[in-house]
Amino acid sequence: MSRNIKDMRNGNRQPSKPSPEQGWRWIVISLVVVVALFLLFSSLSSKATTKALTYNQFISDIHSHQLSSALVDNTTGIITGKLATGTAYTVTGPLPEIPADITLLQKSGVAVTFQNTTTGVLSTLLYYLVPIVAIVAFFLWMNRRAQGQMSGIMSIGRSKAKTYSTERPRTTFDDVAGYSGVKTEIREVVDFLKQPNRFKDVGARTPKGILLVGPPGTGKTLLARAVAGEAGVPFMSVSGSDFMEMFVGVGASRVRDLFQTARKQAPAIIFIDEIDSIGRKRGAGLGGGHDEREQTLNQMLSEMDGFDAAEGVVIMAATNRPDILDPALLRPGRFDRQIVVPLPDLEERLPILQVHCKGKKIGADVDLEIVARGTPGMSGADLANLVNEAALHAVRRGAHQIDMADFEDARDRVLMGQRRDSLVLSDEEKERIAFHEGGHAVLAYVLKYSDPVHKVTILPTGMALGVTQQLPLEERHIYPKEYIEDSLVVRMGGRVAELLVYGDLSTGASNDLVGNTELARKMVREWGMSDRVGPMAWGSQGMVFLGEDLMHSRDYSEDTSRVIDEEVEKILREQEQRAMDLLTDHKAGLESVARALLERETIDGKEVGRLVDDAFGREVHPGGKRVIVVPRLEAVQNIAMMNQPELPK
User: Fold this and answer.
1) Which of 110, 207, 280, 437 maximizes the CB count within 10 A of its CB?
2) Overall number of domains in the chain
3) What is the per-residue pLDDT for 490?
């Protein structure tokens, strides 16, 4: 066992041995081929040297004295011999032989002999052995199938972990773009597996378990594989759902088998993906819990306690729901260290895009920094999908390289969906949508704390009939109250513009109102931004499946609830009035932007600023408000969306 592991680590490939079933199959095929070739060559050789005669010709040759000898087979009736010229002949005669013909042969001076043919050894063996061999082979095949089914049942308690060794293509930290802080923290595991004596000399103990926590698609599994690739040790990967089966006790048995296999291959890494499927809090849920899952978790806790620091086995796990894990699983001595793998920020999205663009033909006009700035909140998997969508768009339009226009269209395709070219709008609807989006765009340009306008469009896409897109110039982690209030005003822009121009309202602002109401409620209930409520916060209730709350309940009184509703209404009313005052002052700019949208359908943020300034008679921002310019935007005629960053919860 140890020798095989050593050979595996050294990269020596051992030739795979054929299975017994394959051996029997090749033996049967070889025998059939040999017999067929024997019969074929025997038939060809006999036909090549012997002349076949008909019986009438045979009688005629007797009368003309053309025969030299004749051998009559009393068993088969076949007559063979030689002609007067020395050529061998054969003829099939009647059974029994005709006495007159035999007498004629003898009177003609032909040397006549008789024989009784006996069956050959090979023919006898083939006649009896072929059915016997077929029957034995059939029973052997049935026996092997039964053994395979029984072995599958008997091995149901074995671990389903996939082992990756140095023979496989290795993943290193160079394949993981960004996340320098995460890689620095996790590199200690690599150092321990490579040089454990360094830790022993100081008396340090490496963490037994490392839990990678982060949203989906951030590369937690990739980081775990990079650790195995850097350390050069066996990497055993298994999903949390692989432990569960319909039979009782299978999960705990597979956990035991997994850890025993890892100890035999130490130093090694055990990686459990989606550990929350078996590591959920015990006793949670409506029915009191899942006994089989809890027994599996208990066995895992016991195995992790049994780890010896000298064994060289490190367990890594990944989850995007750390809040539902059992506290016993997260205590020191089991998962000692939790490493957060967050969504990449602006500085990390750029190298991630560069990694995914390797091997692709990128146009000279592509600015990956602009693409990275325009993708806040996207994970590494989302960025990989974005690059692939851009490549697909380039192929669809018949280009030989990926241009900036392809990235713009791909981002809109990922965020908003496919453009609905089949949707036909009337002229009145187009005009109302133009003023609605113009209201968003004008307020986004005029307000001081709002994000700059990226582009505005009235082309229907996904569920939206028109969209205004804003892109932040820098990554935000804390949102001041002024920024949130300006966000509320910008979202009110479409509703207020319709009210200002047409004097009535439409259903186009429904999504804006939902977002504004949720944002204002968070200001009052969670962020303490209401003077009347004061420094008090009430978060969302625990979910039912966590076993913490059977019914949704709130931790404040009816009077407080009424105060919260009044404060939310007050905030929304105030920001709506701000939007009305600003659009009244810039009504000429609103009309200019709306007319430009009706003519060109899509305009960029720089054009919005120029139109508003020209209509206002001077620059709204004397210092100049920064805008994001996308190359060839007017020629692209792309679809945009209002990309407000997700505020902290």
Assistant:
1) 437
2) 4
3) 93
Are the C-beta atoms of residues 437 and 468 closer than 8 Å to each other?
yes
Alpha carbons 541 and 79: distance in angstroms, whole number: 104
Among residues 448, 207, 429, the alpha carbon closest in space to that of 331 is found at 207
Tracing tokens 């791909």 back to the chain, one arrives at 410
Q: Quick check: helix, strand or coil at residue 556?
A: coil
408 is catalytic: no
Cβ neighbourhood burial of 481 (10 Å; 0-12, 13-18, 19+) = exposed
Write down the residue that tokens 């793998």 correspond to.
Answer: 341
> Rounded to whole angstroms, how far apart are CA atoms 371 and 389?
13
Are 202 and 188 spatial neighbours (Cβ–Cβ below 8 Å)?
A: no
Residue 405 sits in a domain whose CATH number is 1.10.8.60
- SS3 for 9-53 is HCCCCCCCCCCHHHHHHHHHHHHHHHHHHHHHHHHHHHHHHCEEC
* Residue 10 backbone dihedrals phi, psi, to 5 degrees: -75, -5
Clarify whether residues 398 and 451 are in a common domain: no
Query: What crossing angle do the helices spanning 481-502 and 510-525 adopt, rounded to 10°?
Result: 150
Judge if 189 and 272 occupy the same domain: yes
* 556: nearest Cα among 570, 579, 540, 577: 540
Which of 340, 356, 378 terminates a domain? The answer is 340
Q: Which residue is listed with tokens 């851009």?
A: 390
Query: Based on the domain organization, do 270 and 404 belong to the same domain?
Result: no
Q: Is 456 a domain residue? A: yes
548 and 626 share a domain?
yes
Q: Is 67 helix (H, G, I), strand (E, B) or coil?
A: strand
Closest CA to 495 of 580, 585, 574, 573: 580
pLDDT tens, position by position, 311-362: 667 788 888 888 778 788 888 777 878 888 888 887 888 888 888 888 888 8
Same domain, 102 and 227: no
Same domain, 520 and 601: yes
The reply to whether 136 falls in a domain is no
What Cα–Cα distance (Å) separates residue 186 from each residue in 67, 191, 219, 338, 629? 99, 9, 13, 10, 39
d(CA 116, CA 392): 82
Pairing between β-strand 453-457 and β-strand 467-470 as defined by DSSP bridges: antiparallel
Are 439 and 514 in a shared domain? Answer: yes
∠ CA 558-559-564, nearest 5°, is: 95
CA distance 506 to 453: 24
Q: Give percent above pLDDT 70 in the chain.
A: 74
- What are the tens digits of pLDDT across the range 41-86? 655 554 556 777 787 787 887 777 777 787 887 777 778 878 777 7
Structure tokens at 185: 């923290």
Q: Residue 552 falls within a domain, yes or no?
A: yes
* CATH number of residue 106's parent domain: 3.30.720.210
Q: Is residue 152 part of a domain?
A: no
Give the number of residues written for the chain. 649
Domain range holding 503? 427-636
Q: What are the pLDDT digits (tens) for 606-633?
A: 888 889 988 888 888 776 554 444 443 3
Residue 213 vs residue 114, higher pLDDT: 213
Query: Are residues 476 and 411 located together in one domain of the fold?
Result: no
The tens digit of pLDDT for each residue in 435-451 reads: 999 999 999 999 988 88
Q: Judge whether 269 and 231 are in contact, CB under 8 Å.
A: yes
CATH code, 619: 1.20.58.760
Q: Are 236 and 264 in contact (CB under 8 A)?
A: no
Question: How far is Cα 600 from Cα 430, in angstroms, rounded to an integer?
Answer: 12
Answer whether 0.85 is exceeded by the pTM: no
CATH number at 325 reads 3.40.50.300
